[in-house]
Write a structure and sequence with these properties.
By secondary structure, this protein is an alpha/beta fold. It has 29 helices and 26 strands.
């Protein structure tokens, strides 16, 4: 008999993930992809016939024609139910295996022309032999598996055709999509029976192994129950003999008896120890119970160190550990003096705010040393889970106390100095807000009864001295900031950096690299060159790294036979390379449209160049350099001011109609924002449109209004230090910031010529060369000719002479 395939045209195609439908099979599946839902809807509109084919890679969501097998199953839709979310539950019956003649990827769904090819002819004798072997294994499978009933086996055995019989057995026993696809692609009934026989044999072996494993597990359970029963008997015998405590619980009870703690805590701990003693060995609750008891016994409940409230001693410790920071030290001594009079130094929370590397963490350690207290540092940077602060509830596996309780446990006393480092780096997510949990810790009205989720009892934190550090005060949540007293830790002057290097950094690096004082000589006169040429920072970390590099180079030379190394300028360049930081602003000379601005960052003050270029156009203003909304508004205000005063600035009347202004702030990858660049932007625009040169040795800062008023700014001290580091001699600042000059060191005031302005026109006249006054803006004409290095060397000698 000839095998004549039956062809179906324009049949909708549905791709199945991890499923293969065999002829004669009834199958439920959910269709959620838009293309699958559209194909099913199209099939319902026609004759309810659909072609189902499995995906080659079940993980792919968006598929093309080449992603499905060519051989699939022509199916009849029996039922389609709409589900929430635009998906459908489909009930189909496999009609015939089919192969795609052509497959088209339509806009809404795939369409195929398919051919249903009948099974090949087969010999009856081999087919019957294979069928008997399959029937024997099927009966064994039905005995081992709970998935098949006797009626199911009888229904399969009633299939007269060998091909249909093979499909029915495979449908009932095979689980893997790959095995089912091989059955589907086989048109020879004898070969299909062989595949089915091999797959069924494997399933039977798997079921036998599963039964064996289940039996072994049950035997182990029975053994555990027997051991539990025997242990309970042993426990009863010990109780009759009066021996109710094991060695471990005895140790716990001895520690509890020797420890002073609140009665509420003692009662709970006695109950937990008794419960732990009754747990059977190997119980899953035993590790958690032991961890809780050990934590409670390790925590300090009454142990405390005696405070050393000696103000001269504290002053000596602070002076020994840190150079400079006079206002910070004075504020700490005031805090300790109040503690001496009241008898306690806890209460007010100190928050040191300043750039990185200025000594916030180390001065906290000095406070602990001055008081004679234990010191524990806890970094909060990157913490985003409230449980890190409050701990985990004991119902969770692997629960542990929060970091605050862990710090107290580590300290071993109830009155340590605990430093919460980088408190401005706290972040919150769906796990909760750790900053909110810190409110209770840092509130003296609440922390006497701090509740950690792990402890489940109140713990007194009121005797601890909490100190926090931050780089950016604005990043600290307002309720948290309200509970702390902020102490600003300023940037170091160059003279202070040089002195810190002599007193602390050089001896530390010499010891670290195994060098004695006589092996390496770094003259005091070389320190300004190291600071100016190889560092640009508010603190001293880069300086310490540079000194460490010098020590390593010197160690190599000493290792090669030199008895002593003296660092000169030539050797400094040999060790560290050419200076990385130069006075670029002064070296470039007076330029049209380029102005030196001053910016404040969490790392200290920085020099910020603002560039403006006038080009032919229609009066548009283009801004680049990742400027924030506030800074863009400053550009608009400055442009309007310059336009309103065009005649005074020598700008042509038609320039604002025929010229475009492109304003750019270099370092375009760094976001910039804030209003303090207003007069800087106005000067750049005025210079670009008028062609007037801008003085390269002048920096400026100040907010501008539409009427040309120069408004006050923040971070003046840091900005002036940045101008000094950049080698500039003159700075223009708002007149209203004159009162802030009390915080600026005298050395900076003497090194800079500071011009106070209240209106933008005066700032422009001081900065633009054609409009500048004929007299030099510096206090001393001879001093203005000095190099920056000479100024710093004079500052160092003057400061040392005063001391």
């Amino acid at each position: 008999m000839d095998r004549v395939p039956q062809v179906y045209e324009d049949i909708p195609v549905v791709a199945l993930r991890g499923l293969v439908v065999l002829p004669g099979e009834l199958l439920h599946f959910d269709a959620g992809r838009d293309r699958s839902v559209n194909a099913i809807q199209r099939a319902l509109e026609q004759d309810s016939m659909v072609f189902l084919s499995a995906q080659k890679d079940a993980r792919k969501a968006d598929i093309q024609c080449q992603d499905i097998y060519e051989v699939g199953t022509l199916c009849k839709l029996r039922q389609v139910l709409s589900l929430p979310g635009d998906s459908s539950r489909v009930f189909v019956e496999g009609v015939s295996r089919a192969v795609t003649v052509s497959l088209t990827d339509g806009e809404d769904y795939m369409v195929a022309d398919i051919a249903c090819i009948p099974d090949e002819a087969y010999a009856q004798a081999p087919a019957e032999a294979l069928r008997r072997r399959v029937a024997k294994l099927l009966a064994e499978y039905a005995q081992l598996s709970n998935r098949m009933s006797a009626d199911g086996v009888a229904g399969i055995e009633a299939k007269p055709d060998a091909g249909e019989y093979a499909d029915a057995v495979a449908n009932a026993t095979m689980q893997k999509a790959a095995d089912r696809q091989r059955i589907l692609q086989e048109y020879d009934p004898l070969a299909r029976l062989k595949l089915t026989l091999a797959g069924l044999a494997g399933e039977v072996e798997i079921l036998k192994a599963d039964k064996r494993i289940a039996k072994e597990v049950q035997a182990q359970v029975d053994k555990n129950q027997k051991e539990y029963y025997l242990r309970e008997q042993i426990k009863a015998i010990r109780k009759e003999l009066g021996d109710t405590q094991s060695a471990e619980t005895d140790l716990m009870r001895d520690r509890l008896a020797a420890k002073q703690m609140p009665e509420e805590v003692r009662v709970k701990l006695v109950r937990e120890i008794d419960r732990y003693a009754d747990l059977p060995a190997g119980s899953h609750e035993q590790p958690a119970a032991r961890s809780y008891i050990e934590c409670m016994l390790d925590l300090p409940w009454s142990e405390q160190s005696e405070d050393t409230l000696d103000i001269p001693h504290a002053r000596a410790v602070l002076e020994q550990d840190h150079y400079g920071l006079d206002k910070v030290k004075q504020r700490i001594l005031e805090h300790l003096a109040v503690g001496r009079l009241t008898g306690k130094v806890n209460g007010q929370i100190l928050c040191f705010v300043g750039p990185p590397g200025v000594g916030k963490t180390s001065i906290s350690e000095s406070i602990a040393r001055a008081l004679g207290r234990k010191f524990v540092r806890m970094s909060l940077g990157g913490i985003r889970d409230e449980a890190e602060i409050r701990g985990h509830r004991r119902t969770y596996i692997g629960a542990m106390p929060g970091r605050v309780i862990a710090a107290m446990r580590h300290a071993g006393t109830v009155n340590p100095v605990i430093l919460f480092d980088e408190i401005d780096k706290l972040t919150g997510d769906y796990h909760g807000d750790p900053a909110a949990a810190m409110l209770e810790v840092l509130d003296s009205a609440q922390n006497f009864a701090f509740r950690d989720h792990f402890l489940e009892v109140p713990y007194d934190l009121s005797k601890a001295l909490f100190i926090t550090t931050a780089n950016d005060k604005s990043a600290i949540p307002a309720p948290l900031l309200d509970r702390m007293e902020v102490i600003e830790v300023p940037s170091y002057l160059e003279t202070e950096k040089a002195e810190i290097a002599k007193r602390h950094l050089i001896p530390k690096q010499l010891q670290k690299h195994g060098l004695s004082k006589g092996m390496l000589v770094l003259p005091d006169a070389m320190l300004p060159a190291v600071i100016r040429g190889y560092t640009s920072e508010a603190g001293v970390r880069e300086l310490e790294r540079a000194i460490g590099a010098i020590c390593r180079k010197a160690a190599c030379e000493i290792g090669e036979g030199k008895p002593r190394v003296r660092v000169s300028r030539a050797r400094l360049v040999e060790y560290l390379g050419q200076p990385r930081h130069r006075d670029h602003a002064v070296q470039r000379g007076n330029t049209v449209g380029v102005v030196n601005g001053l910016a404040w960052t969490i790392a200290g003050g920085e020099l910020l160049e603002v560039e403006a270029q006038a080009v032919a156009g229609s009066g548009q203003v283009q801004m680049t350099g990742r400027l924030g909304d506030v800074m863009q508004e400053s550009v608009k205000a400055a442009y309007t001011f310059v336009r309103a005063h065009a005649s005074e600035l020598g700008i042509a009347e038609d320039a604002f109609k025929t010229m475009d202004v492109h304003l750019h702030v270099p370092q375009g990858a760094v976001p910039k924002d804030g209003p303090s660049a207003g007069i800087t932007i106005a000067t750049a625009i005025a210079s670009a449109l008028s062609g007037a040169l801008v003085r390269a040795d002048v920096a400026m800062t100040g907010e501008i209004s539409l009427r040309g008023n120069v408004l006050p700014i923040g971070g003046l001290r840091e900005k002036l230090l940045a101008a000094l580091r950049a080698g500039l001699r003159a700075v223009i600042v708002p007149a209203e910031n004159k009162q802030d000059m009390d915080d600026v060191p005298q050395e900076v005031k003497e090194a800079l010529s500071i011009t106070y302005v209240s209106d933008a026109m005066r700032a422009l006249k001081a900065a633009l060369v054609p409009l500048a006054a004929p007299a030099a803006p510096y206090r001393d004409a001879e001093r203005s000719k000095e190099p920056v290095g000479a100024i710093y060397e004079r500052m160092i000698m003057r400061k040392n002479a005063r001391e």
